[in-house]
Structure formats: structure tokens, C-alpha cells
């Protein structure tokens, strides 16, 4: 029963990883850019929500109405000022510039907020600890369930947006061939900026759940980036539903690892990531196959 | 060196001959350093040598092979850990620095088989994951005592003066040796192959460059170099706290040195290390703002001057201090071919 509970908790934890990986996966899939400042930007959003709640009494879910659009603007600026310019320098320059950006953000947050850990949990009432008991050993936390629901809704929403709306199709076309879309009247620069804005708005949501489910500090971004990246790669980089599967695999591996030793939580997660890479080396592109199987119905 | 219509392809130039001779003189002078310099200066120079190794190794991986890694601190930390582990098992302490780095380098070979399947940014963060995993696994060793860390106590057998000098000589020898290896490698057909991969992997493969083998070799060499740097660092710092050694800030330093000095230029790596060393000496006390400044400088260089300081020197002057590429000399000796194309292009043809 404890074993079953660990798996269930791992699946729910996977919901959070899918949520944090959503923006990273979307940006990689659509723009071919891996944003190394991704984790730090999620922490920025968490601090923004914290300040709103702490100073102005705005509760986090309401605060998201302000922070998500604001992060969208940050995404627009990020694309225009950093990513677009560094992409011209070659494929590797965005990696360097976004890593530089993450160092700036982390240390500025440290300068502004100090080393204290913060949490949004005090501002969401009993949601942070309430749970439904299924049996004596198994309980589902309400916040964890909400995280999973939001992750599924967000991934599904983006998937539908990409396949059904005009701008979504323009984003996919631009990802396919930025030069050719110009011929059919799509402004590739604008489309990419919109895509970056959407990605960063999802980062704001991820930041909110980061703050609500646990504590964070100015240097928490690196771990979030790594978890997001692992979920995204395990699921097949750039695939949105794959990201959900990747998140669940990572979460289950971690919570099973935690049964062995306290350090086992992280070790098992990293090992799961490497095992998937290793498996792909020998069994072909596992994630891509899962992705195509899943996306078969969704994409015409 | 064939001459057609009075033009000739040359590798060595008068400047590069002078530069190599000057470098030999500088190394010879540095070798007697401990007899001349103050203890503080010897420690500082040891640090500088380690920075040069780190910059050179990261630059070789990125600048010459097109592999950006955010996880080179994995090898830095493992190198330090391997030295401590071997010394604890009774291996003489200075040989254990080099032996440990060799073991880490050997381990990086099988790792490269998996990691090099990742491309671009995926490789970059994938290496970061490897570094996190290495950190956690090292913490499992009871010798390290978790994040509390341990120290290279075997060095206490030496008096502080002779320990300082020995570490200094080890660092100087390691730096000179690695500079020589990278220099030799880049001039060899393999070096031409490596640079062809950086410029265009598919095209390089199509003309017969064995891409996978060349990348694996550079990956392993740079892992060895970073491990040696880590082992030398623990020999100067004495203490080993896993968190400090496996921190991505080391990669931030490496990126800073390589970007500011000039990605893909041999001289740039050394220049970048010297610049970083100077900045750390002057501004290191500023703590958080110093790190913000480092990040900002790296960002600005990535966006506005991706070829770095040495790239700027090369673009504006045609000065090449180290003879790595080939260049075309006109018959009258004037109007030397400028830019990078002759270097990489001619070299690439030689590697096929």
C-alpha cells in the first residue's frame, strides 16, 4: 500500500513537472530555442506573486491575472532583445546568452530578497494542506490534484490553440520554415514574439505552483530548469503531451527513489533521465514514437 | 608550401615565431617563480594557471567542437574528489592529482557515447544533469561527509612553503602541457576535422570527417583537463565541499572567459582567463553585484561581440600569434589574406 501511495504521489508530482516543463517544451518545439533562464524566470514569477500577496494582500490566484500577462510581456521582450539577436550568432549563442541572463536574475533576486526561503502557501488557505483520503494509507492532496488538472488543461489548451486557431497555425508554420512563411504574409518576427509571450505566461503559472506547493529561494531556478528539462526530454523534446508523460515518469522515479534513501529522490530522477537517453541509443527514438502515437489523433 | 605566381600558403609567420619564443621564455621564467615571488603571488598565479586550463578546455569544447556544456563542473568536482579518494587510499598525494584526472577522463569516454547523442541546448543541460548526479553520488561516499565536505589532509605532510611551490609547479606543468596538447591537436588533421564539425557538421561528415570519433576525443580531453583543474584547485584550497566544486558557477566562469576572450580562438582562451583573473581580483569582494556583472558581461558579449576580444584583434589586424591555421601570402608579402575563411577552409580540406 505504501508502495502504491508512492506511485500515486509520484504521478501527481509529475503534474507539477509537466507544468514547469510546458513553457520550455513549447519554446523548444516551436522556436528551437532552449531557454536556460527558464527556471529563474519561474522563480521571478513566484517572487512577483509573493510581493503581491505579502504587500498588497492580493491572493496568488488573483495575482496571476496580473503576473501572467506581465510575464508574457517579459517573454516578448526576451524574444526581441535577447533570443532574436543571439539566434543570428548561431545555434549556440542563445544557450550562452540565456545562461548569462539566469545568472543575472538569480543574483538580482538574491540582492533584493536575501537568502530567506519564501512560500505562497500561507496565502491560499487550507488548499495547501487539505487532502481527500481514499484509504487509510492513500490520500490525494487537493493542491497536487489541482496542479495536475491545471497541467492537463494548459497542455491541452496549447495543443488545441496550435492546431485550431489561425495564430496557432502561424506559429507552427513559422517553426517549420521561418523564411517561407514570409511569402504567405506571416510576420515571422511577430509570431515568434507571440510564441515567447505565451511560453512565459505558462512560466508564470508554473511559478505560482512552485511557490504554493513548497518553498523557494533566489537560486531555486536551476533545479526547476533541470526538472523541466528532464521531463521534456524524457517525453520527447518539443512534444506537449509527451511532456506530461515525461513529468509523470520523472515524478514516479523520484518518489520511488525516495523510498530507498533521502538522496535517492534526486538520484533516481537523474538516473531515469539518463536511462531514457540510453534506451533511445539502443531502441531508437522512444519519445518520438510515443509522441507520434499520441499526436496521431490530435493533429490532422 | 607551394608558390604559385609568387603567392604562398604559409603557416608560420614572423609574429607567430616571436610569440612561440616569447611563450617559451615566459614559461621558463614562471618555472623559477616560487624562488622569486611572494607566497601570495605564487598562490595567485596558481589560481590563474587553473583558470587558463578551464578556459582552454571549455573553449576547445565549444569554440572548436560546437559543444556548449553547462556541466563541466562535473569533471571539475570529480577530479577533486578522485584526488582525495586516491590520497586517502594511500596513493602519494601529488601523483594522485594527475592519476585521478586520468581516471575521470577515462570515465568520460563511455559517458560521451550517451551524451553526444544530444544536440545543442539539450547537450548543454544534459551535461548539467550529469553534474548534479555526480555531485549526489560523491556525497554518498562517507569520506566526503555529505555537504560538510572534507579536505586533502595528506598535503599536511608537506611544509607550507614547499607545498605551495609544488602545487604551483604542478599547475604550471598542467597548463603548459594542456596548451601544448590543444595546440598540437588543432594543427593536426584531427584539429582541422574538429573545426570543420564546428562550422558545419553535416558538410564535414559528407566529406569523410569521422564526426563522432572526433567529438568523443575532444569531450574526453576536455573532461580530463577540467578534472585536472579540479584536482589542482583542491590542492590549493585544501578543503573539498561538494556544493562549491559541483556548482554551475564554474561553468559561468568558463563561459565568461571563453566569450570575453573569444570563442574558438586559441589565444582568446588565455586572454579571457587573464581578464577574468584581473576582474576577480578587483571586483571579487563585491559579492552578488560581481556575479551580476559577470552575467551581464557574458550576455553583452554573446549578443554584441560574439567573437570576443581576440576575435576583434584578429578581425582588425590579421595578427595571429599561434600558428594553427594556414594563410595565403601574396608574392610581395603585402595584403595578407584576412578573416577566418583561409584558416578553417584550408584546414578542413587537409582533414578529409
Strand order of the largest sheet of chain B: 1-2-5
> How many domains is the backbone of chain A divided into?
1
> How many angstroms separate the termini of chain B?
19 Å
The coarse silhouette of chain A is globular
Instruction: For the largest sheet of chain A, list the strands in their spatial order.
Output: 1-4
Number of helices of chain B: 16
Summing up helix and strand content along with how strands pair, one would put the structural category of chain A as mainly alpha
Largest sheet of chain B: 3 strands, antiparallel
If classified by CATH, what would the architecture of chain B be?
Orthogonal Bundle
What Rg of chain A do the Cα atoms give?
19 Å
Low-confidence stretches of chain A: none
Radius of gyration of chain B: 21 Å
How many β-strand stretches of chain B? 5
Number of spatially distinct domains of chain B: 1
Q: Overall 3D geometry of chain B?
A: globular
User: What order do the helices and strands of chain B follow?
Assistant: EEHHHHHHEHHHHEHHHHHEH
Provide a short characterization of the protein structure.
The complex is a heterodimer of chains A (300) and B (352). Chain A is built from 12 helices and 4 strands, in the order H-H-H-H-E-E-E-H-H-H-H-E-H-H-H-H. Chain A has 300 residues and is mainly α.
Amino acid at each position: 500500500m505504501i508502495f502504491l501511495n508512492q506511485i500515486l504521489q509520484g504521478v501527481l508530482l509529475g503534474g507539477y513537472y509537466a507544468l514547469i516543463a510546458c513553457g520550455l517544451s513549447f519554446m523548444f518545439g516551436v522556436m528551437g530555442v532552449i531557454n536556460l533562464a527558464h527556471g529563474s524566470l519561474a522563480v521571478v514569477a513566484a517572487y512577483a506573486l509573493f510581493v503581491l500577496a505579502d504587500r498588497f494582500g492580493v491572493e496568488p490566484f488573483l495575482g496571476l491575472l496580473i503576473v501572467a500577462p506581465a510575464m508574457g510581456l517579459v517573454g516578448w521582450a526576451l524574444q526581441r532583445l535577447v533570443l532574436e539577436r543571439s539566434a543570428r550568432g548561431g545555434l549556440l549563442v542563445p544557450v550562452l546568452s540565456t545562461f548569462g541572463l539566469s545568472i543575472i536574475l538569480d543574483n538580482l533576486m538574491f540582492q533584493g530578497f536575501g537568502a530567506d526561503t519564501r512560500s505562497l502557501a500561507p496565502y491560499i488557505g487550507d488548499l495547501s494542506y487539505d487532502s481527500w483520503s481514499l484509504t487509510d494509507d492513500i490520500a490525494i492532496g487537493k493542491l497536487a490534484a489541482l496542479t495536475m488538472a491545471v497541467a492537463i488543461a494548459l497542455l491541452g489548451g496549447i495543443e488545441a490553440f496550435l492546431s485550431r486557431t489561425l495564430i496557432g497555425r502561424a506559429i507552427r508554420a513559422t517553426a517549420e520554415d521561418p523564411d517561407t512563411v514570409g511569402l504567405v504574409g506571416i510576420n515571422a518576427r511577430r509570431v515568434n514574439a507571440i510564441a515567447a509571450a505565451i511560453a512565459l505566461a505558462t512560466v508564470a503559472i508554473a511559478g505560482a505552483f512552485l511557490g504554493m506547493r513548497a518553498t523557494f529561494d533566489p537560486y531555486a531556478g536551476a533545479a526547476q530548469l533541470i526538472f523541466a528539462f528532464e521531463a521534456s526530454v524524457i517525453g520527447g523534446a518539443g512534444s506537449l503531451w509527451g511532456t506530461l508523460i515525461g513529468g509523470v515518469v520523472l515524478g514516479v522515479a523520484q518518489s520511488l527513489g525516495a523510498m530507498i534513501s533521502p538522496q535517492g529522490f534526486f538520484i533516481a530522477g537523474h538516473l531515469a533521465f539518463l536511462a531514457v537517453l540510453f534506451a533511445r541509443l539502443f531502441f531508437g527514438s522512444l519519445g518520438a514514437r510515443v509522441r507520434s502515437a499520441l499526436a496521431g489523433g490530435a493533429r490532422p | 608550401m607551394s608558390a604559385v605566381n609568387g603567392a604562398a600558403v604559409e603557416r608560420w609567420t614572423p609574429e607567430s615565431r616571436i610569440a612561440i619564443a616569447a611563450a617559451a621564455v615566459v614559461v621558463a621564467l614562471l618555472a623559477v617563480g616560487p624562488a622569486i615571488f611572494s607566497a601570495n603571488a605564487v598562490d595567485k598565479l596558481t589560481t590563474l594557471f587553473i583558470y587558463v586550463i578551464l578556459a582552454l578546455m571549455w573553449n576547445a569544447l565549444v569554440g572548436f567542437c560546437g559543444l556548449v556544456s553547462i556541466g563541466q563542473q562535473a569533471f571539475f568536482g570529480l577530479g577533486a574528489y578522485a584526488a582525495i579518494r586516491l590520497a586517502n587510499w594511500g596513493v602519494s598525494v601529488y601523483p594522485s592529482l594527475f592519476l585521478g584526472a586520468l581516471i575521470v577522463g577515462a570515465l568520460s569516454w563511455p559517458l560521451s557515447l550517451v551524451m553526444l547523442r544530444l544536440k545543442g541546448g539539450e547537450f548543454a543541460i544534459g551535461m548539467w544533469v550529469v553534474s548534479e548526479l555526480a555531485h549526489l553520488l560523491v556525497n554518498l561516499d562517507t569520506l566526503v561527509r555529505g555537504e560538510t565536505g572534507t579536505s586533502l589532509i595528506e598535503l599536511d605532510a608537506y611544509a607550507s612553503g614547499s607545498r605551495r611551490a609544488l602545487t604551483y609547479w604542478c599547475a604550471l606543468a598542467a597548463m603548459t602541457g594542456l596548451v601544448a596538447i590543444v595546440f598540437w591537436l588543432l594543427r593536426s588533421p584531427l584539429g582541422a576535422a574538429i573545426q570543420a564539425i564546428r562550422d558545419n557538421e553535416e558538410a564535414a561528415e559528407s566529406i569523410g570527417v569521422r564526426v563522432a570519433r572526433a567529438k568523443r576525443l575532444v569531450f574526453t580531453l576536455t573532461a580530463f583537463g577540467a578534472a585536472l583543474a579540479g584536482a589542482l584547485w583542491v590542492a590549493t584550497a585544501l578543503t573539498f565541499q561538494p556544493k562549491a566544486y559541483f556548482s554551475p558557477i564554474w561553468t559561468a566562469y568558463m563561459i565568461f572567459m571563453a566569450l570575453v576572450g573569444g570563442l574558438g580562438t586559441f589565444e582568446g582562451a588565455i586572454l579571457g582567463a587573464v581578464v577574468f583573473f584581473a576582474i576577480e581580483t578587483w571586483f571579487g569582494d563585491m559579492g552578488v553585484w560581481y556575479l551580476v556583472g559577470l552575467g551581464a558581461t557574458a550576455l553583452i558579449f554573446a549578443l554584441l561581440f560574439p567573437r570576443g576580444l581576440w576575435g576583434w584583434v584578429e578581425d582588425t589586424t590579421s595578427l595571429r600569434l599561434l600558428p594553427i591555421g594556414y594563410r595565403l601570402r601574396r608574392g610581395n608579402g603585402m595584403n595578407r589574406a584576412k578573416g577566418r575563411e583561409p584558416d578553417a577552409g584550408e584546414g578542413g580540406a587537409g582533414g578529409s
